[in-house]
């Protein structure tokens, strides 16, 4: 049996956050940091600059090619959103050394983008603040599985198989067979990376949002997004997608199950474009 801390402690041997991201975060966290220095750091990396401008001018933000410089992008979006975008665009390189034999990485990243887009669409539907940050949290929400399938593939696969066969919630099967679940591992990794507290808080509570405290509402968003992504992967209907959603989620978000079809359609509309934006080495299907 393994703890989330044990699994995450092994990850440093294979991967770490990129230096450019760490320098940008240092500037954002510093009382002396500011837009000019963050813009200089981003502009020093031509590939990062090109990708950031592509994302900012995409349908997510609606500027349609009118933002033509890093400085302007940061001025309009703010340092928090730039931090989150640079983090999201770093994921493929961060996990380049992790290739679990039992995982289709293209499928994993596709599902991650779908989850992020769905979480953002849910946040917009219920007028949640900071939908772009919810997008990034949704993108990261299943990272725990990437760690588990790399370090403990046997027990992780057994948990998935037993969950599918019996209908038991996956996180409960993982707790029983692995010792921890994907949400715990993901939250522990967010803490290990010293990301803002909402990342660990939301990701850790995504399986049981009612236990999320101040993050319960955002965790409810990701919880709902998880069900929609699973339906997408299994080609289930939107009605089937909502079958296992925690009933309290609907009340927390003030949404009706019938809204799922529109939310799913909105996410699917942008999926291929955003896979290519955030994971250019992958494919959309």
From TrEMBL:
<dbReference type="InterPro" id="IPR052340">
    <property type="entry name" value="RNase_Y/CdgJ"/>
</dbReference>
<feature type="domain" description="HDOD">
    <location>
        <begin position="14"/>
        <end position="209"/>
    </location>
</feature>
<dbReference type="InterPro" id="IPR013976">
    <property type="entry name" value="HDOD"/>
</dbReference>
<protein>
    <submittedName>
        <fullName>HDOD domain-containing protein</fullName>
    </submittedName>
</protein>
<dbReference type="Pfam" id="PF08668">
    <property type="entry name" value="HDOD"/>
</dbReference>
